[in-house]
Amino acid sequence: MKQEAQLRSLIEDVREGKLPRRSFIQQMVGLGLTAPMASMMLMHAGVANAQATLPYKPTKRGGGGALKLIYWQAAVHLNPHFAGGTKDQDASRIFYEPLAGWDSDGNMVPALAAEIPSRQNGGVSADSKSVTWKLKKGVTWHDGKPFTADDVVFTAAYAGDPATSTVTVATYKDVKVVKIDSHTVRIDYPKPTPFWAEALTGIFGCILPKHVFEPYIGAKSRENPANTKPVGTGPYKIVDFKPGDTLRAEANPNYHVPNQPFFDTLEVKGGGDALSAARAVLQTNEFDYGWNLAVEDELLKRLEAAGKGRMEFLPGSDVEFVSLNVTDPWNEVDGERASAKSKHPAFSDKAVRTAMGMLLDRKGVQEVIYGRGAITTANFLNNPPRFRSPNTKYEFNIDKAVQVLETAGWKKGADGIRAKGNVKLKFVFQTSVSQPRQKCQAIFKDACTKAGIDLELKSIVPAVFFGSDAANPDTYQKFWADMQMFTTTMGSPDPQVFMEQFTTDQISQKANKWSSRNLARWSNAEYDAAFKAAQEEFDPVKRAALFIKMNDLVVNDGYIIPLFARPRPNGIVNKLVPALSAWDNATWSVGYWYRES
Amino acid sequence: MINYILRRLLIALPSLLGISLVLFTVLALAPGDPFEDLANNPNVPPEVRMALRAQFGLDDPIWQRYLRWLSAMLQGDWGFSFVSRINVDTLIQQRIPVTIAVIGLSQLLALLVALPVGVLAAVKPYSWFDRIASTVAFVGFSLPTFFTGVLFILLFSVQLGWLPFVYRADLSSSGWQWWVDQFKQSIMPITVLGLFQAASWMRYVRSAVLDVIRLDYVTTARSKGLAETVVINKHVVRNALIPVVTLVALQMPAVFGGAIVTEQIFRIPGIGSLLIDAILRNDTPVIMAVTFVFSCLVILFNLIADVLYGWLDPRISYR
Predict the structure, then answer these.
(1) SS3 per residue for B12-67
(2) Cα(A61)–Cα(B215) distance, rounded to whole angstroms?
(3) Maximum CA extent, chain A
(4) Does B32 touch chain A (CB under 8 A)?
(5) What count of other Cβ atoms lies within 10 Å of the Cβ of residue B151?
(6) How would you list the strands of the sheet with A426-432, edge to edge?
(7) Looking at the predicted structure, is the pLDDT value of residue A364 above 70?
(8) Would you say A78 and A228 are in contact if contact means Cβ atoms under 8 Å apart?
(9) Cα–Cα nearest to A569, from A438, A451, A436
(10) In chain B, which residue's Cα lies nearest the Cα of A516?
(11) Contact criterion met (CB below 8 Å) for A326 and A559
């Protein structure tokens, strides 16, 4: 495969020092891979993981006063293995730590691990079926009990028990974690697992104390008082928690990292709206850090002009995209709208899809609406240049779109709308209610009207659109419209789960109560084969090449039109030095936060 | 009197039962799923969601769920929040102190402003005082709290930097400093809510007093040579209060749920914001409990109003 060879030569360049490690990882991210996966590739190839360290200046513990964070959504509980949303994950991550976290470059940074396992230090077995983690010694839980391998073994069993109903069950149900000695554990995978670092790292890997959680494993998990009164190993200890409102914590005097934490107390306030949260950080300095300030860039710039704080945009894996329906949403086949057996009358013509791709003015929307909050992208595949195939570059060109349509035989009718036979280019375009999305819809409609395509805009309340009510016709899972737009996120550091959403098995339909993830109902035998191969491939480079190929297949077919990468906007007051990461929670290393004097 | 109260309470039972049935059915039929977050998370297999639904009894028929809820409620078990997985009564208890402190105080402020200003304005109608008070009141109730709230924030927090605009239920300071901080953070929401309420109540008090002040017995009282303060306080205000009591008593339950907008603006963790969050997250047990408490309060305050009438006007008797 050409891509595989190119990847290998890039890795060689890194090894020889011709290509900086960081730019390699950035290129991989541009290819639609995740930074953690790219760094795993380097590790596998034996390119040493420069022991990643985070900057930290203070020379003694405490003395930093209060650290105040504001979230416009409030945390409702503090068990990391029940935390479905970012707000709950971030809040519980203050108290609990995994064996290692992920920094912005995709490096693993040890937390409760003594070192990162690798081929070289014998941590990762040659067949990629087991990983041995050495644990840090001298770590104690907030209640004074020592942290040992038993806690790690227990956490995997707790999370992997389906009766406990954790959100991390998929990561743990098939793996076996074995205790080797009091501070060493081994993870055994049932089959070769190239991305071995999902279990026990990041938010999925937060270790729970066995002595606190053991009585509440399984169906009793709800009754555990520790769900709201955490006992962790983290830099801060709980003082008080009011679900849906405030979280108060104080410095852990026995924290296992010297000189940390810097702040004496920590407070997380939840609720309200993004704009006033931005105001509280950037304008009045009532809070030190504001989470996900999804506000129009114009307004943010005005608030920043006060000179009291700054915005930081962290590019991660969120992508806003438009999908064109592969199936026919308006006619029933076998009693089902948008049946996988049907074909969309207009979009089945590649010329229409190509024209639609040219009519979406990404750059215009980015400049007018999102500003720094969006990075235009032709597809999941836009960087580096040597991988960019000539037919995947994005372009906004009404004239060219018109030309494509004319050539394909779509002629303008008396009403100005193009048609061929009895099929008219008249589409329903749906998305969730949100000011920038509606503006974006209007801009697209304008361009389409000029090209003779009529868009009917529809916006649906987020609770319904993203709700999973099988009885509601307006959910994005049903996709009973011609086009829809939303943001998708890669929830885990490995892209496999993400890429699964374009496989034929995942087609969302009546048979599975529209609960699976291929919403556009796109199906491609070559893609399915590549996905299958990637699942079994344990050479990380070959596997990465397969993912790139899959990206290419989806994007080039024109049904899925990626628009923007959406970096996460964080508000930070002057002098605060937070340690943020795009590939882990905002609070993943809250012990490293400090204020410059 | 005791008989009357007991009878009223007994009549209230079937209405509460009816209210709970309607609430429960509407909530059960409404779209949405408390485990929506999980459905949108590709890392969570659908089985987890299904298992949770089964575990929390969401897949049973509505009547079964209602009966289960009712029998638990009768035993004092309010159920638990699907979202935070802790008991609903704990959640509500956490919110009550703040709700009473902020919204209760604002109602008190409203009364303290509305009563004297309304009475004074009515005693000398069309005087300068009356004109100014009426104009201010008119402006006051024309401006919604979400507007005045933001206006206050822009002025006192952003421009002047005097007051914080994010309410913190857990102040870390102690002693005198705690009272100072508490005062600083409460003054804006209390004023915004209180003055809005005071404006409409003041108009009401004024017209109620005006109705009474022209009656013959007031003239008689004056001609007997009673002091003006006695005439006003004993003869006018007491009689004028009856309609005002109705209004205020019926407004009281709203203290526990009506300040949602103001609570959002100042981020006050009151019952109103608990309710709105629960609605947004489809957390049915919490919605059910809060709305049910709310309907109980409406019934209770109706009763209190009726009892107060008798005290204000001995001619009203209870049979």
Answers:
(1) HHHHHHHHHHHHHHHHHHCCCCCCHHHHCCCCCCHHHHHHHHHHCCCCCCHHHHHH
(2) 76
(3) 80
(4) yes
(5) 12
(6) A375-376, A560-565, A319-324, A483-488, A426-432, A454-460
(7) yes
(8) yes
(9) A436
(10) B46
(11) yes
Q: Which residue has tokens 């960087």?
A: A383
- Tell me the mean pLDDT in the region B43-70: 80
3-state per-residue secondary structure call for B189-225: HHHHHHHHHHHHHHHHHHHHHHHHHCCHHHHHHHHCC
The lowest-confidence range among A41-50, A216-225, A381-390, B186-195 is: A381-390
Average pLDDT over residues A137-152: 94
Pairing of the two strands A265-270 and A289-290: unpaired
Chain A residues near residue B36 by CB distance under 8 angstroms: 463, 466-468
CB contact under 8 A, A167 and B44: yes
CB under 8 Å to B154, separation ≥6 — which residues? none
pLDDT at residue number B127? 87
- Answer whether A244's CB lies under 8 Å from A270's CB: yes
pLDDT confidence tier of residue A568, bands split at 50, 70 and 90: confident
pLDDT of A412 above 50: yes
Q: How far apart are the C-alpha atoms of B293 and A30, rounded to whole Å?
A: 54
Burial grade of A69 (CB within 10 A; 0-12, 13-18, 19 or more): buried
By C-alpha distance, which of A345, A355, A442 is closest to A398?
A355
- Three-state SS sequence of A50-61: CCCCCCCCCCCC
- Chain B touched by A305 (CB under 8 Å): no
Query: Coil, helix or strand for A174?
Result: coil
Most confident of A415-429, A528-542, B256-270, B302-316: A415-429
Strands of A423-477, DSSP E: 423-424, 426-432, 454-460
**Whole-angstrom distance, CA of residue A199 vs CA of residue A173:** 10
Name the residue among A219, A265, A469 with its Cβ closest to that of B33: A469
Are B43 and A162 an interchain contact pair (Cβ–Cβ within 8 Å)? no
Say if CB B249 and CB B305 are below 8 A apart.
yes
Q: In whole angstroms, what is the distance from residue A589 CA to residue A534 CA?
A: 32
* Residue B219: other Cβ atoms inside 10 A: 12
CA A448/CA A359 separation, integer angstroms = 6
For an interface test with B, the pick among A71, A165, A466, A573 (most B C-beta atoms closer than 10 Å) comes out as A165
Chain B residue numbers touching A492 (CB-CB < 8 A):
43
Residues 255-284 of A with CB under 8 A from B: 265, 267, 269, 271-273, 276, 279-280, 283-284
B282/A166 CB distance under 8 A: no
The Cβ of residue B10 has, within 10 Å, a number of other Cβ atoms equal to: 9
* Cross-strand pairs, A71: A270
For B236-245, how does the pLDDT look when each residue is reduced to its tens digit (9 = 90+)? 888 888 888 8
Cross-strand bridge partners of residue A332: A337
Q: Is A242 on the interface with B (CB under 8 A)?
A: yes
Cα(B250)–Cα(B300) distance, integer angstroms: 10
Choose the closest CB to B170 out of A248, A276, A280. Answer: A248
Q: Are A269 and B166 in contact (CB under 8 A)?
A: yes
Q: Encoding tokens for residue A589?
A: 């290393």
Sign, Cα dihedral of A469, A472, A478, A479: negative
Residue environment code for B182-206, b if the CB has 16+ CB neighbours within 10 A, otherwise e? eeebbebbbbbbbbbbbbbbbbbbb
With CB atoms and an 8 Å threshold, state whether B38 touches A267: no
- pLDDT at site A177: 93
Contacts of B86 in chain A (CB under 8 A): 77, 227-228, 243
| Residue whose pair of structure tokens reads 């996988």 in the numeric block | A340
Sign, CA dihedral A154-A156-A160-A163, equals positive
Least confident of A555-564, B133-142, B247-256: B247-256
